Structure formats: structure tokens, C-alpha cells
Amino acid sequence: MTGTERLYYHDSRLLEFDAVVISVSERDDGQIAVELDRTAFYPTGGGQPTDTGTLGDARVVHCIDAESDGVLHLIVGSVPEIGDRVHGKVDWLRRLDHLQQHTGQHILSAAFVKLFGAPTHSFRVLEHECEIDVALDDPTDERIERAVDLANQIIWENRSMTIRQVTAEEAASLPLRKEPSREGELRVIEIDDFDLTPCGGTHAKSTGEVGVIAVRSWERAKGLARIQFMAGIRVLNDYRKANRTARDVAALFSAGREDSPALVARSVEESKKLRRRLSELEEVACRVEAEELLKEAGYRTGSDSDRIIDSSEDEQVSTTRGSGWVDRVHRAAVTDSSRGFSSDSDRGSSPTVSEGSVRGSSPTVREGSVRGSSPTVSEGVELGTDSDRGTSPTVREGSFHTRIITKIFSDREADSLKHLALALIAHPNTVALLGSRDGDTARLIFARSSDASGDMSALLRRVCPIIEGRGGGRPDMAQGGGKNFEKLSEAIDLASKALA
Hints:
The chain has helices at about 90-115, 140-155, 170, 235-250, 260-295, 415-425, 455-465, 490-500; strands at about 5, 15-25, 30-35, 40, 55, 60-65, 70-75, 85-90, 120-125, 130-135, 160-165, 185-190, 195-200, 215-220, 225-230, 330-335, 350-360, 360-365, 375-380, 405-410, 430-440, 440-450, 470-475, 475-480. It has 3 domains: about 5-90, Elongation Factor Tu (Ef-tu), domain 3 (Beta Barrel); about 95-240, Threonyl-tRNA Synthetase, Chain A, domain 2; about 280-500, Roll (Diaminopimelate Epimerase, Chain A, domain 1), CATH 3.10.310. By secondary structure, the protein is α+β, with helices and mostly antiparallel strands. The model is unreliable at about 305-400 (pLDDT under 50). The N and C termini lie far apart (about 80 Å). A 7-stranded mixed β-sheet has the order 19-16-20-21-22-24-23, with helices on both faces. A 6-stranded antiparallel β-barrel has the order 2-3-7-6-5-8.
């Protein structure tokens, strides 16, 4: 015998009652728990959520089934004393909702058994919908809708429902839909000439109170068919939302609601074609952009004999190099000021060229600035010097070099960044260290041509913590992202120096 008489066992529509407080305690989380000698509040259990309501001047926010210790009412507000007589009131709309969902589950589960011999293994009342896991072989839309149609037929016939208390011996002789989960006296719910099952939840007095059942979706889960359904007032609320959405979509096409699916399908197909075409054009544009970046960095592409090219409009200074030369740019860092990134260069200054600074014959090219968003180029035998934008590049004959192109973009998507990296490393002896702010995300992509050295994946993993992110990939290409886009430049600088 439990410490609390459960009034909802006998009448699911009993909403108000008087009771005596038999215990008051404080739980580990600080909540106050009140136990009564009798209650109409249903505690969480059997897949059905708790009732809420009021107890005197206090708010009942949750009820717990403590088995032999009775029902604990967790309250917020005025705390009663032991022995006080209090008035309880259950929230009707919440009780009605749960009553409809639980009764609807009985009907739908019985329909699956009647049609397909498929028992229900579990049931859950969620915030917006309900779930049942059914042992249904070969689940299809058609089979599930057959069960839904039968369930609604039983609802609209408004069949009577009765509650019976039976002993374990009596239960053993009854055609119960499922085996009882407890011993002793059982509470059995019967739907006239349709279902008989043990249950301790709240239920309707007749099937018509459920109103209607609808299945929203289903999926395979753990060898069962997991079916999302709803009943009663939830179906009405869901219909209103779905209808509003359908009307809004139809309005975008200036069409009727029934015509919108075909119009949406056509629009999606057209969008796919446009995206494919855009991707093709993006690749073409990136190849051109890569050529421009290499030229800005001081290289003429498409020739076995590279040249260092000054960006001055007035004169061009070049040194032709033979087959023994491979260029290496320590840093070609471009800041795109038109996209919100600052530039350290002084626009308009002219480069200075001095001869004889290296081994008496090789030229030293000193670039004081690069116009606009042009990259600053630093050449030297050691990659990882402390050169910055505008420092003097040095060419040393006989050294083996790889050119490194770095650039940071604003609002450039990951795919576009990847296309540019691929276009850059199509050129020999090239490493691309690219970054972008994509919305609230910092993007990085590191790539190298097949004849260049360096593990891009290891390099990326090393610098990603700077932007508070992570990434990975292959030795020749890796990409990642993080949330600190303000440190993109720092991350790329570290990567460039690390390659030394």
C-alpha cells in the first residue's frame, strides 16, 4: 500500500481535490517536496510526463513517483506544514493533452497489432510529438497509414473505455495486448471490443475524446520502426503551422498551395544547375586570380625562365634566371583593404634597386611599398626571416626556394578558398596559405604543389589553436576553421615562419 492515494486511477478528469500534508522535505537540489495523503496529480512515469498545477498558494512544477513512499509534489512558493489541509488543482489543458496522447497511443499500438501483429516496445510523450517503437516488419508509408486509418476509425466510432482492477490470476486469463510489468493487482484499460492492456496512466472515457491521430514521420531505429505521431489538440496546432508554412511558400510563387510542391521542385532543380555553372565559373575565376597573385608577388607565370617583376608603372627591373633557379617567397601577404582588412604599405612609393649587394653580382631588390592590395614579397635563402610588409627581398643564387603565397579574405566561403588554393598550387614550387572570415567563422586552407615540401596537415593542426579551432587533411592540402577570426593573420604568419 502506497503512502498516497492516487485519485487519477479512478477518474482522469478529476482536477481539484483536498488533501492533508503528511511530509515536507528538502531535496539535494534545494527543491521542496511535499507528500499528501491523496492526490490527483499524475507523476512522471510510463512514458507520460508529470502534471502541473497549484497546491494551496504554491506552484506544483513536477511530481515524482516514489513508489511505496507515495507521490512527491515539488513546489515553488509558500511551503505548508505537516498536518495542514491543502487544496490542489491540476492544470486542465496539460492533463487533456497528455490524456489524448496516451489514449491515442493505446489505440494506435492496438491497430498495429490487429493489422500486422506488430507490438509496441516503448512509448514517449515529447514536448511537441510522441514516439512509439514498433516491431513492424518491412515498414512503409502505406502500412503505417493503414494503421493510422484504423486508429482514427476507432476514435470516430467513439467507443467506450473502462478501467478494471484485476488480480494477477485474473490477468493471466485475459487477452492482454502486452505483459504486465509489475506483480500483484493490476489496473487494466479496456477499449470496447478493440484493446485490453495494463496501464497506470490517465485516459479518456471514450475514444472520441482523442479527436484524431496523425503520423508526422517514421524511421528505422535499433531494428524497430520509430513512429512520430500526435493526437488531439496537438494535431490541430501542427496543422495550423503546416498550413501557414504551405501558404507562405505558395505566396512566394504567386500560386495556390497545391501547386507549390511542383514549383519548389522546379526551382530546386534550376538552382542545382546554376550552382554547378557557378562552380565552373568560380574555378575559371580562381585560375585567373591565382595568375594575378603570382604576378603581384613578382613572378611571371607560364615560363621556364622566371623573372622578378617590379610593380612600378614607370619602369621594370628584371633578372633572368636559368634552370638552376627556383624562386622562394618567404611571405607574399596581401591585405584586401576593400574588404575591411588594413594594409601596411604606403601607396604610391617607388621601389629602389641596388646592385651588388649579394656576392657582388646578384641584384638586391628593395620594395618600399606595394600599391593598394598588392602583396609584399620577401625573397631569401632562409624562409622564416623577420621580414614584414615592405622589407627588402634578397635573391641568392644557387639556393633552392619555394614561393609562398599568403592572403586573407573577408566573407569568402570555404569552397571558393579551396578553388583558389588548387589554382595556386597548379604552379610549380608553390605553397598557398589562405584565410577568410566566413560569417562568424575563421577559415584556413593550406596547400602545396606536388614538387614543394612541407606537411600541410601538421602545419594546420599547429596553428588552428590560435583561431580557437581545429582542422586536418592530407600532407599536400588541409583545411580547418575556428571562431577567432581576428587572429587569422597571426595564424598565417606562424605557418609561414614554421615552413622555414
